[in-house]
């Protein structure tokens, strides 16, 4: 899990983020191919559908876990407004909204394949890819170090245990 010890409270979170980045990289490559070819192959459609499944079944539940486990504990310690807690809460909401926009664009492409639908799918997909990469970086570089520094050992243990599976 990189430079983080396995027993670190955020080791599993960071490992999940790394897995998510791999999936986002595949989505980005698919979107790039669709733009370059101005078309959407059956394989592209399968990857777009897998991305929707990933967002719904993996990413959004994971964010909910962060919302339920990490953010309330950190908010109780450092507050919400004017802190990273508020930034991350806002970003989680933006990610949820963006996933819905991507899903709608995917359905639009499925029902009315066109260059405009490809561009719309690309616009929402690329936004999500870039936003999530930046979001994961922000958590890794700022939120998690702050939590390690400010949260109690029992709180950190709860976080580690929540993401252990």
What does this structure look like?
- The protein has 165 residues and is mostly helical.
- It has a single domain, classed as Up-down Bundle (Four Helix Bundle (Hemerythrin (Met), subunit A)).
- 84% of the residues lie in helices and 0% in strands.
- It has five helices and no strands.
- It has helices spanning 11-37, 42-78, 84-111, 115-150, 153-162.
- Helix 2 packs antiparallel against helix 5.
- It is elongated and about 55 Å long.
- The two termini are 15 Å apart.
**Which structural class matches the secondary elements?**
mainly alpha
Question: How helical, in percent, are the residues?
Answer: over 70%
How many structural units, i.e. domains? 1
CATH C-level category: Mainly Alpha
Major sheet attributes: none
Low-pLDDT runs? none
- The number of strands is 0
The termini sit apart by: 15 Å
Q: What is the CATH-assigned architecture?
A: Up-down Bundle
Gyration radius, rounded = 18 Å
Output the CATH homologous superfamily.
nmb1532 protein domain like
Quick synopsis:
The chain has helices spanning 11-37, 42-78, 84-111, 115-150, 153-162.
List the main descriptive attributes of the protein structure presented here:
elongated; mainly alpha; Four Helix Bundle (Hemerythrin (Met), subunit A); 165 residues; 0% strand
């Amino acid at each position: 899990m990189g430079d983080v010890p396995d027993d670190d409270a955020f080791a599993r979170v960071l490992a999940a983020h790394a897995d998510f980045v791999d999936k986002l990289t595949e989505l980005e490559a698919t979107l790039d191919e669709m733009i370059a070819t101005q078309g959407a192959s059956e394989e592209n459609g399968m990857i777009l559908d897998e991305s929707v499944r990933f967002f719904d079944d993996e990413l959004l539940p994971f964010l909910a876990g962060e919302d339920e486990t990490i953010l309330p504990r950190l908010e109780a310690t450092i507050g919400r407004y004017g802190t990273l807690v508020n930034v991350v809460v806002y970003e989680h909401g933006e990610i949820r909204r963006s996933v819905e926009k991507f899903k709608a664009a995917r359905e639009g492409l499925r029902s009315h394949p066109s260059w405009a639908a490809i561009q719309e799918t690309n616009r929402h997909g690329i936004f999500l890819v870039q936003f999530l990469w930046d979001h994961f970086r922000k958590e890794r570089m700022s939120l998690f170090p702050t939590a390690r520094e400010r949260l109690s050992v029992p709180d950190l243990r709860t976080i580690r245990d929540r993401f252990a599976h």
